[in-house]
From TrEMBL:
Residue intervals of the Adaptor protein ClpS core domain: 20-97
SUPFAM superfamilies according to UniProt: ClpS-like
Gene Ontology terms for molecular function: peptidase activity
Keywords: Hydrolase, Protease
Protein name per Swiss-Prot or TrEMBL: ATP-dependent Clp protease adapter protein ClpS
Stored InterPro entries: ClpS, ClpS_core, Ribosomal_bL12_C/ClpS-like
GO biological process: protein catabolic process; proteolysis
Gene3D superfamilies named among the record's database cross-references: 3.30.1390.10
UniProt cross-references to PANTHER family, sorted A to Z: ATP-DEPENDENT CLP PROTEASE ADAPTER PROTEIN CLPS (PTHR33473:SF19), ATP-DEPENDENT CLP PROTEASE ADAPTER PROTEIN CLPS1, CHLOROPLASTIC (PTHR33473)
Subunit structure: Binds to the N-terminal domain of the chaperone ClpA.
Record has Hydrolase as a keyword: yes
Amino acid sequence: MTESNTEAVKLAEDKVKHEPPPLYKILLLNDDFTPMEFVIEVLKLFFSMNQEQATRIMLKVHTEGVGVCGIYPSDIASTKVKQVVEFARKNQHPLRCVMEEN
Ligand code: NFA
């Protein structure tokens, strides 16, 4: 291995050790059909919110069109998005959930 290559490896290792992982916002989007109570259940089940927090976020999405329900590293964010989308689909609701880089 060349000197410049070992130096590049050291720098990459330092980056892995010291830098926090990139974070992703999970967004819920409003629609006209998903029941408010179902959205509240989603927020309680997948985002560990209590009734009061879940109601506040649901109403924000309902009135403003979009709302942040959590911020996580990529693997956790993508797992949660999949779980929410699958849970909505199984219950035949069109609720949309997406992630975006912070
Ligand atoms: N707008 C939906 C309704 O009036 C409720 C809703 C809130 C849907 C948040 C999706 C997200 N039943």
